[in-house]
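hey so i finally got around to running the thing on that chain from the lab meeting. sorry it took forever, my laptop kept dying and i had to restart like 3 times. anyway pasting the input first so we r on the same page abt which one it is
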Amino acid sequence: MNEKRPAIGFTCAYTPLAVLEAAGFSGHRVLPTGGQWPDQAGRILHDNLCPHVKKVLDRALCNDLPELAGMVFMNSCDAMRRLYDAWIQVRPGEPALILDLPPMVTDRAIAFFAREVERMARSLGEWNNVEVTDDALAQSIGKYNQVADLFARVRVRAAEGTLSGGAPRLQELYNDASSQPFSETIARLEKVLTEAHGADPAAGGVQVFLFGNVLPDPGAVDLFTQCGARVVGDDFCTGSRLFAPLEVRDGEKPALALARSILNNPPCARTFDPEKPLALAQDLLERARACGAQGVIGHVLKFCDPYLARLPVVRETFKQAGMPLLLLEGDCSLGSIGQQRTRIEAFVEMLR
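ok and heres what got predicted. didnt touch it at all, straight out
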């Protein structure tokens, strides 16, 4: 099933994808992988800035993008805000929108973000000459939740070691799903779930849980397999966080349901609860234990201030809990994480 829809680019897992579908678009996540681009972003943005942002901007500067009807950015961190500022300079005249994303989850924050979701719906409707009604948005949320449910079932297969291709294949499915209509993803995942149980190339490996911000290259996931690890769970914005279920309460407006669900989904490091400063570390620890991980590997991007600020607490929390932890830094490239092979192999060997 190939559903022809104009595509809207996005760069963040907090993007309300259901709004894109309700407005007649499909999402296309602009990933920082898949090619070798000259480093041109450095002449526009500071050198010591998130490599994810710089590589996405490099793609735009090299015109290495599919045909897009516009871009939606999330003001999730200062680097993403700078990406939006640069994008409208290097691609003038193309529709672009940025939504403000609250850093905390409170009733006022949810109400504010609901208004941002409504603004996004109005803007996208104008771009496509349609009206995004509550009924259309509710139907789109339903399709999104179908995708989320199917991914949850596929993750169970991957964690059990019965998904042919294992964790690298799961990452391929995430990448494909981030750049096609919901209907195509639903059809593909349903087909995956009808497959006979296959052999996981990492069968017998040490069970590890991965977390971080951006690690979309299936080759990077495969590297952990080559080092003797079996990935049984993840917390990446290019992985499980992209398709988390959306809860709709009876009588609740779809925009408010989207805002509340998105803000309450498993958070990345940019979300902070001053009343629970250890929330991120404790959540990661609980999720790692729940999937039976013997150890945890964190991979974060260089110059990612939100994660770098949280890692000391994560390290201390894991130390007190007796959960082995390996922290890596990279720049989105497969070569960058490949340089960490010796450290990964030593960590896995320690867990045997």
